[in-house]
């Protein structure tokens, strides 16, 4: 009986080890899996958005993610679409390994997550219709109807920095929606990232006006879970390499027609 019991015990332990390896394999992170799972709010052109097929994620950040994955030794990238207002919670809940989706650097994100060094320049701007000459600075937004994407630094800027009357503010789930309301006359201005504003201006010639742009830079970083500093540090080195060998410049010129990956300070 004792000998038989030892065999049973050994068999049980072996089974437990097999199960443990199986579970760890299913839950591998970006540092261990052959697939890099990238969280995106892919309704944010030209940074990340759906192609004409409605399925494929394309854009500046998508190209950056693919290059990063290749240099990390990954076989592929899986883009995981997520609403912006819940994207950081989803990251920390291991829905994906990293957010490469226009993450502006601010104090709260630095405290709650692991951010890389900046890889693209950005700032807040005001967009109006071309024939609107009444808005030339943030001071002119007082009493005006202003839109922005919910959960973004554009919202923070309108509410916390400018302290605009919230009765006149409209927050939208998608960055494309305030442009639709601006066209329809339901709002008078949009607070948005300059990378998005330039896309809309270049694709709608004569329709929109870049009425004002902030002097303060708001650079964009890649965002990892708070605990994943190892992979973040690897990606920081790859960002340096991509900037040094001209890869970042090439990707930027493809999507913006200019290099927006310099002057990051």
Which tags fit this structure?
265 residues, five-stranded mixed β-sheet, alpha/beta, 39% helix, disordered N terminus, 13 strands, D-Maltodextrin-Binding Protein, domain 2, Iontro_rcpt_C, ligand-gated monoatomic ion channel activity
- Classified by CATH, the class of the largest domain is Alpha Beta
CATH architecture of the largest domain: 3-Layer(aba) Sandwich
Structural class: alpha/beta
- State the fourth-level CATH superfamily of the largest domain: Periplasmic binding protein-like II
Mind telling me the C-alpha Rg? 22 Å
Domain unit count? 2
Please tally the β strands and state the result.
Answer: 13
Distance between the termini: 73 Å
Question: Layout of SSEs?
Answer:
Elements: H1 2-26, E1 35-40, E2 43-44, E3 48-50, E4 57-58, H2 60-71, E5 76-81, H3 87-92, E6 98-104, H4 107-112, E7 114-115, E8 124-129, E9 146-149, H5 153-161, E10 169-172, H6 176-184, E11 189-193, H7 194-203, E12 208-213, E13 220-224, H8 229-244, H9 247-256
Parallel strand pairs: 1-5, 1-6, 9-10, 9-11
Antiparallel strand pairs: 2-3, 3-4, 6-13, 7-13, 8-11, 8-12
Protein described:
It is a single chain. The protein has 265 residues and is α/β, with parallel strands linked by helices. It folds into two domains: 35-121 and 220-256, Periplasmic binding protein-like II (D-Maltodextrin-Binding Protein, domain 2, 3-Layer(aba) Sandwich), CATH 3.40.190; 124-213, 3-Layer(aba) Sandwich (D-Maltodextrin-Binding Protein, domain 2). The chain has helices at 2-26, 60-71, 87-92, 107-112, 153-161, 176-184, 194-203, 229-244, 247-256; strands at residues 35-40, 43-44, 48-50, 57-58, 76-81, 98-104, 114-115, 124-129, 146-149, 169-172, 189-193, 208-213, 220-224. The strands form three sheets. The protein has a five-stranded mixed sheet with strand order 5-1-6-13-7. A five-stranded mixed sheet has the order 10-9-11-8-12. A hairpin with a 3-residue loop joins strand 2 (43-44) and strand 3 (48-50). The radius of gyration is 22 Å and the shape is globular. Residues 1-30 have low confidence and may be disordered.
